[in-house]
Prior knowledge:
The chain has helices at about 5-10, 40-60, 80-95, 110-125, 130-150, 275-285, 290-310, 325-340, 345; strands at about 70, 185-190, 200-205, 215-220, 225, 400-404. It has one domain: di-copper center containing domain from catechol oxidase (Orthogonal Bundle). The longest helix has 20 residues, at about 290-310. The radius of gyration is 21 Å and the shape is globular. The protein is mainly α. The structure holds copper (II) ion (CU).
Amino acid sequence: MHWAQWATFVGGAVAVVMPAVAAAPPPKPQYTPPLSGIPMPVEFQVLQDRYHEQILGSLGTQGCTNDSIAKRRSWDDLDDETRKDYIRAVHCLASKPALTDKSLAPGAVNRLDDFTYIHINQTNIIHQSGYLLPWHRLFMWQLEEALRNECGYKDYLPYWDNARFSADQSKSRVWDGNATTSFGGNGAPRTPPVEGGPDSTRLLLLPGLAVEFWLPMPLGTGGGCVTTGPFTNLTLTLGPVAKPVRDTANKYGYLPTRRCLARSFDPGYTGGASLTWANATSILSSGDIGQFRDGIERLWHRQSHTFIGGDGADPFSPTNDPAFYVLHAQIDRLWAIWQGQDLQTRTYAIAGNRTFFGIPLDYAPDVPPSLATIEDRMEMGLGGRPLAREGMPTTELGRCYIYV
Length: 404
Ligand SMILES: [Cu+2]
């Protein structure tokens, strides 16, 4: 694809003026500042441009091509019809029966719960490990396929461009609380109010590890049910899993616990100090996958979840919050841009242990830490057991998408 054509969909409404003289060099890609949020700085544009060039340059004339490649876009750049259609399709999955075996998870009621079940089941293997990126890439592709094939969604998985809204995340169309085109806003304040304010933390136990691991979680500014947007009546049944007490009766939250969707926005992760363009650019400048995976997990992924708080911040069942998928699409986008700086050496790069920080699991406490390889199998749920390397390219093995 010619840069001029490319820029028209990258920039949306951009009109690229063709040179008057046919022999003149093609115009440089035009980046149009968005209508909202902080424009993409030039350092990030350079990285994104190279990713686009590399991916498009790698495509052939069969399978995934320049014409067939899907564009995953910022939620803030979709039109309202597409946003409404996405939300409709999420509700559609929430209304279809779960496929997960009831004996595995009695609380799995609907198709969204199938995704939450396997995320809970794999949490200690797919976070702070080598599988973080390929597992979630496949996971979200499966969700995208379900939205499209089972519920008729026409577009592709959008992402929450949190860098663009680092000054105030609530200004993003993801969080503006609109009844049909957003994911809703903050949760209601806790009643009675907690001591210590939004910055104080409580410790949550992560079950399943051979050591006691308590995760500090800020209390945030909400904590109650989401009161705006299209998910105010969403009923959750799986989770919560990370709790302030040891819950031996419902260790992984597989038993039904009917409740609303809770959020607790954390002011510590909005207001310009984190989730910024500068931090994203810095993470993308990582020279190897070990540095990149550590950076994105420690400096981006965690902050994104903690900003949302509530159900979306439970490390096991954050998928209960439909915003999980736009959050992780942004993680996937940053990985794709990193890979796209050098597809040859970076597409299949992997670094990390086979479990959460290499900690043995409680059912196998004597297994020493070992390193993940791209030939390892990953559990995707409903019988899917692909190799890690099968979760790495974005334009092969049935996948065909690019982030714009
Ligand atoms: Cu996850």
